[in-house]
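To whoever is on call:

I kicked off a structure prediction for a single chain this morning and the downstream step that reads the tokens threw a length-mismatch warning. I double-checked the sequence; it's 396 residues and nothing unusual in it as far as I can see. Pasting both halves so you can look.
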Amino acid sequence: MAQDLNKMFLNVPDTKVDAFTTDAELANHANKIAFIHGAGTIATHGEIFTGGTTNKPITVAGGPLADDSSDNWPAAWKDASGNKQIPANTSLQEILTKLFLKEVNGTLTGPTYTWSPSLDNPTLTVKQGTTTVTNNKHLPLGTQLTVTYAKTTTVSNLAQTVTVKSDQGYFKNAETTHRTGNYTETVNCSYDTSSVSASARWGTAAISTGDTITVDVTGNKTVTVNNGTATFTANNFTGVVLYPSTNTKTKLTTGSKTIEGIGELPQTQQDTSSASLTVYGYKPVFYGNYGDTNIASTFWTADKMTAKSLIETAPTQQDMTTGDATIFIALPTGHSNYNKTLEWRSTADNSLLGTTQTTTVSFTHPNTTTTTTYKIFYVTAATGWNGTDSFKLNWK
């Protein structure tokens, strides 16, 4: 061991004692042994070490520790000007300890508990004929839809979790094994879905699965399915006492954290779930063409108006094709263009199609009791159209 230290720190060559060893060499050996045991001087290195300690300050500059960015250099090891140094009369063990060890007591934070169990949503499907209706679908008043729904007893997020954070690791119970990172334990809770039972409403009216509903209002109306209530019961965590550690993996007896039972969690939680779908009802705009010539206002009935195309707002362009003699558009009361005048003008040369006339009809939307007055704008000719031409609608 002495020779290892000799070579590591002093770089003094190994020596042997035999019949040819001189008195001077023996004296040198004795001095080395005295140094190892706390006495004597190694002069070959400028008498830095005497009796196992430094006998004058060692300036620290340019080396890896001299440029320590976090400046963990011991405050007592600086001269009056603030320069780093190793003081005189400092043992090798103290030097190494000061430079390479700074023991830090770790802490534990927590415990933190999380638990958010949930009951999955019921199923809900709304169809228009065979087409599935999507949320916020715009549909004309009177549209009929079929609703099917069912309860769901599937649950999610059953995990109860407790976490204790550590900055230097921890020890568990009476164990001597050092553990790094944070302590986390997860257990699943118990649950009861026996009271789950789905019920539904269309607006405020109760409906059953398989029922047909009618879009009967202008604006939004919602199908809502409630899934009832599930009850969740917390289960116990494993009882444990956690102890903080130093950065040298030494167990500390203060600052421990105890986890027992369900901790800070509530004994039970309840959750409900629901599903919904909203549709938007509107009063449609009707438009199209007839081959009838020189028609009078008495021609127009609700059936004649609704026999053609419908749209939510209004077209910006309409066509006349061979055989057409009359073009029309019908707007419901409340439409932004209801009280305006209308011209059909050619998209080719902006020429006027003809004189626009108006009349009104009363229309009860199918499958509802809602009646709306429609204003019909139309141009009629004495003969049928020849060819195909497009006309833009010019509202004034």
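Update from on-call: the warning came from a stale cache, not from the record. Cleared it. Sanity check on the structure: The chain has three domains: 2-100, 109-281, 283-395.
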